[in-house]
Every structure is written in C-alpha cells, then in structure tokens.
Amino acid sequence: MSEAIMKMCRDTMNKNIEALVTQFARVNTGRAHASLIEDVPIEYFGSVIPLKQTASISVPESRQLLVTPWDRGAVSAIEKGIMASNLGLHPQVEGQTVRVMIPTMTEERRKDLRKVVDGYAEKSRIAIRTHRQDAIRDIKKEESDKALSEDESKRFQDQIQKLTEEHNHTIEQLLKAKVDEILTV
C-alpha cells in the first residue's frame, strides 16, 4: 500500500510540473508562438471551445500569429475571444483570417510578467507541499494501523521529502529559465 502512496504522490507532483510548463508556455514573452492563444476560449455556435479546435494557428513572422478558421463564420468569434482573453493582444480581421500582432514588450510589462510567473511557480510549490503532506499523512495512518513499522514509515517519509525537494528544484529551474526569457530584450 505504501508503494502505491509513493507512486500516487510522484504522479501528482509530475502532473503539477506539467501544468506549470503549460502555464509558462502561455505567457507572452514578446515572441509569437501558437501556444500563446491556442487555448483561448471562443464562443462558437452557443458553446465555448478552445481556439485550436476552430482554426489553425501559424507563425508567419517572429512577432505575428495568423489564425485561419476552418469555418468562415468563426472569424468574428475568434476576434472577440482573443480580445477578451486579457493577453494584451489586438487581433485584426483580414478577410478570412485573423492576424494577431505581438506587441513590443516594455520594461513595465516585463516586470508584470515576472510577477505572473512567480505567482504560477508559488502556486505550484504550494501544490507540491500539499501533495507531500497528504502522502505523509497516509503513511502515518498506515503506521498507526500497524501496516508499516516505524522504520519503514520513516524511510517512506524521507523518500517523500526527497521527491518534494526534487520537484521544487525543477520548479526553480523552470522559473529561472522563464524569467530569463522574459527579461531578455
């Protein structure tokens, strides 16, 4: 049972790291990339779906995205969705496509984005600590139920702590890389 607790703890921590990587990818660093807008919610025929399910997104230039809807009727919905996304982007409709220019990053905007990614990293650290606490609680419960000896319990708790430290180190590396990307002019 305790091996299952370790596996569940490792899996949830890994999913947390994957979610952080996805969040970081969506942060605009001044360069165009499809992941910046691919999950923007679009209201289309009465339901809300991600942009990537209604159009193809290409990067014709380093500071420009070109959105080509599969249905001509989706152009205005895509424009509205991008404008409502709070990404600071201003789409321009050009016939059957929507062109999105990525604005130049100001120093103030870079500082704001740094705060945003710091917040994402902190939420991720908190989630990792919560997973650690849950796993240790489960291990201690097994110990109190006499399913584990005190030594085994301590060994599993040490493994969980080591796992937590490894994931926190990964978060710090990801954060440093993203901050460097944001602050690079």
Automatic annotation (TrEMBL):
MF annotations from Gene Ontology: ribosomal large subunit binding
Keyword Coiled coil found: yes
GO cellular component, one term: cytoplasm
Domain of life according to the entry: Bacteria
HAMAP family (UniProt xref): RRF
Family membership: Belongs to the RRF family.
Name of the protein in its database record: Ribosome-recycling factor
Gene source species: Candidatus Wirthbacteria bacterium CG2_30_54_11
